Amino acid sequence: MTSSDSSVRDEYIHGVAPDEQRRLATMNALINPMCLDALHVEPGQRVLDVGSGLGVFTREIAQRVGPTGYVLGVERDPAQLAYAAGDVASPTSPGWIEFRQGDATKLPLKSVEIASFDVAHCRFLLEHVRHPGAIVSEMAAAVRPGGRLVLADDDHDLMRLWPAFPEFDEVWRAYTRAYEHIGADPGIGRKLTTLLVNAGCVPTRMEVINFGGCAGEARFPLLVENLIGVVQSARERMDELDLCSAQKTNRVLTDLHDWAAQPDAVIWYVICLAEGRRPD
Ligand SMILES: C[S@@+](CC[C@H](N)C(=O)[O-])C[C@H]1O[C@@H](n2cnc3c(N)ncnc32)[C@H](O)[C@@H]1O
Fold first, then answer.
1. Residues of the chain where predicted confidence (pLDDT) is lower than 50
2. Among positive and negative, which fits the CA dihedral 243, 272, 11, 182?
């Protein structure tokens, strides 16, 4: 299998087990307020959220666009959609939100919806796919002329722990190599602007959203648990590919708790965000 084989379905390295869904929901609670502010959506706008996962962020976008707006989440996996549907069924769910099953490389849009969105957004999707350019092109076609594309994703090389924890760095490298083995790109964050340009958009903004923290912050234990969770959910793949033994990974993840108990422990990490505009 090669990364250019377009007939192969992308593998989502973290899977959709209930523990992983809980991790994703907690992570959403940690970062969504910052991500929502950075998205710059306004009341009345039509927003497309691609690779919407549990739909937690999609729903928060819907709260911001309000009843005169509309938000469509597109997600491939039925288990994630079922979670999102459970939320939509709640009486507090906005009526102007919809989820649709589909692949981001061929968005399930009706012909009247093409070129109709004000904003197309994706977060933590492009790092998981073989053909990110195909997805960004679909997103560019979905927005109206002058509409905005906002891409937010990881650049795994930017992860730094201090005080130094070299064994964790080795496990993190093995984790990122697992991405490469399945044809995904752990360094997609730095390439987001290139993806926009290649899709015919004019880049208008780049920024980083803090995905780190230090000991003493209330959110720090949750950031540590998120770090453990992302590696845990990819552990089987890392083991299969012989990138790092399960025994070593387990030990290092356990030791991460001791590392995090140091009064000066810091996770330096960011979400990369790039914005572009479809030309008029
Ligand atoms: C890390 S989750 C992020 C979910 C959400 N965007 C968030 O930030 O909370 C990535 C999601 O992308 C979905 N996904 C991966 N490849 C996809 C594709 N080709 N088309 C649609 N969804 C995809 C996965 O099923 C998963 O739910």
1. 1-4
2. negative
Q: Closest residue (by CA) to atom 13 of ligand 1?
A: 51
Helices first, then strands: H and E counts in the chain: 8, 10
For residue 230, give the amino acid letter: V
The tokens describing 262, both together, are 């140091």
d(CA 204, CA 124): 20
Whose CA is closest to atom 12 on ligand 1? 51
Domain boundaries 18-277, CATH class: alpha beta
Alpha carbon of 51 to ligand 1 centroid (Å) = 4
Q: What are the tens digits of pLDDT across the range 88-97? A: 667 667 789 9
pTM (2 d.p.): 0.94
Nearest atom of ligand 1 to the alpha carbon of 56: 9
- What confidence tens digit (pLDDT) does each residue in 131-189 have? 999 999 999 999 999 999 999 999 999 999 999 999 999 999 999 999 999 999 999 99
**Of 9, 20, 107, 125, best ligand 1 pocket probe by most atoms within 8 Å of the beta carbon:** 125
CA distances from 165 to 230, 262, 276 (A): 17, 12, 37
